[in-house]
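Hi support team,

I've been running sequence recovery on a batch of backbones for a student project. Most finish fine, but this one hangs at about 90% for roughly twenty minutes before it completes. I'm not sure whether the input is malformed or the queue is just slow. I've pasted the structure tokens below so you can try to reproduce it. Let me know if you need the job ID as well.

Thanks,
M.K.
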């Protein structure tokens, strides 16, 4: 998950329509993988990944300046994921999507609790050359006792929620776990990138 996020972020910012159209390619590939028993697991996983990709393309391409729309847009696949789980279809992909969404929810909660939303809004309207002081302000906000405390609490929550499903032998729980744990990796890499800015 972390590699696609770092590929999608610059792609969707510069070419949002192209990023959205890639979704069609993912769905075609997922359909083909699902038709073969030995690749069906990968097709299933790719369907779940596609939900995260299309939501990310829509939000970061056209709505990124409004943080309050982030979770509603990212949740676009939620009814389909619940329906699939209820019907016993596509469990691996649906659980992957749910794990990704949970990670997004926790990350957004952190942004609200630590009052990073003003920095988010500013970053979405400036060019790269003007982003450095905004990143530095956000890092200063995070490095308070309040920010560090919430980072530890929420990262610990994600770690526990991500590790527990690994006790299961079911692949859909492993997909969920991988998506949740990748949130910690992605958020950590973004934090390092902000510190380096």
């Amino acid at each position: 998950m972390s590699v696609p996020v770092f590929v999608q972020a610059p792609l969707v910012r510069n070419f949002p329509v192209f990023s959205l159209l890639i979704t069609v390619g993912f769905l075609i590939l997922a359909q083909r993988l699902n038709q073969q028993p030995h690749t069906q697991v990968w097709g299933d996983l790719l369907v779940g990944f596609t939900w995260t990709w299309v939501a990310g393309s829509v939000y970061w391409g056209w709505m990124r300046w409004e943080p309050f729309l982030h979770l509603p847009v990212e949740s676009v696949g939620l009814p389909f994921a619940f329906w699939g789980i209820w019907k016993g279809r596509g469990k691996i992909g649906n659980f992957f999507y749910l794990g990704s969404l949970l990670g997004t929810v926790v990350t957004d909660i952190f942004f609200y609790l630590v009052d990073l939303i003003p920095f988010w809004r500013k970053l979405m309207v400036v060019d790269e050359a003007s982003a450095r002081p905004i990143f530095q302000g956000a890092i200063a906000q995070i490095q308070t006792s309040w920010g560090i405390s919430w980072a530890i609490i929420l990262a610990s929550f994600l770690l526990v929620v991500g590790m527990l499903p690994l006790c299961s032998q079911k692949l859909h729980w492993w997909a969920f776990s991988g998506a949740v744990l990748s949130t910690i990796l992605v958020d950590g890499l973004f934090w390092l990138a902000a510190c380096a800015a």
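--
Follow-up from support: It reproduced on our side and the slowdown came from queue contention, not your input. The radius of gyration is 17 Å. No action needed from you.
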